[in-house]
Fold this sequence. Notes:
Strands 1-2-3 form a 3-stranded antiparallel beta sheet. By secondary structure, the protein is mostly helical. The chain contains 12 helices and 6 strands. Helix 1 packs across helix 2 and helix 10 crosses helix 11. The protein has helices spanning 3-12, 19-30, 67-72, 77-84, 89-94, 98-101, 109-125, 148-157, 160-169, 177-184, 199-210, 229-275; strands at 36-37, 50-55, 58-63, 173-176, 217-219, 223-226.
Amino acid sequence: MGILALLDEECLRPGDTTDATFLDKLTNTFTRHEHFRGHTSNRKQIGIQEFKLIHYAGEVTYLVSGFVEKNNDLLYRDLKETMSSSQDSVVRELFPEAELREKKLPQTAGNQFKVSLNRLMDILKSKEPSYIRCIKPNDVQQAGRFDDELVSHQVKYLGLMENVRVRRAGFAYRRKFAIFLERYKSLCPRTWPTFKGPDREGVQAICAHLGLGDEESKLGRSKVFIRFPRTLFAIEDAFQRRKDELAATIQATYKGWQQRRRYRDMRLAVTTIAKHW
């Protein structure tokens, strides 16, 4: 039985239920749990109305004041009836009349949270999610300010150091052939502007043109693997320089076309004037 289940049990049981009785039951149930700390285990750091949980992201202290009342999440019946008879369609949809006819007890906030979380987990399990690791630099929302202790705490508990070690031991960069070819095809004359062969051959041509050896890159069945970050940075720098070259070429071509068109218009105007002079 978890904390939310204990909270639901405390809210639904008959008798006088308070935040203090919930905390007592919590302490008696989890006093020997390795991730739970109560007031009796550390009276100096944990208050009499507090408990501490050892999360994956560090220790978090909770104040039980208002837990029972907020978990009940009760809405008076007459208020529900008023909202369900509202002339606003959105309000009526939020408070359907079917709920008024139900005889069972309403769900607690904790139970609603568990149901919502389970639905979210079902959705995530059916997908292939990609996670973006975000680091919060400070607690005051100020630009250019980094709190070393705060950042170090996040880096440690997000597992970023272990991720970096794994990446360094293997390949730091891996992308599907089509994505790599589409981005870097301008770096190789054979693949620019279009490559009509298989994506794998196009990627192989780019790597050969850039002089990437077997120690720096490998081609798999559907992806290209680059071992060292410095190799990827060099490819990206070459791509940025190539973009400047292409921009200059496009600009020169446009200016040339513009001046030729202007010259033709001027020559036509001169010819027309000379014809009617």
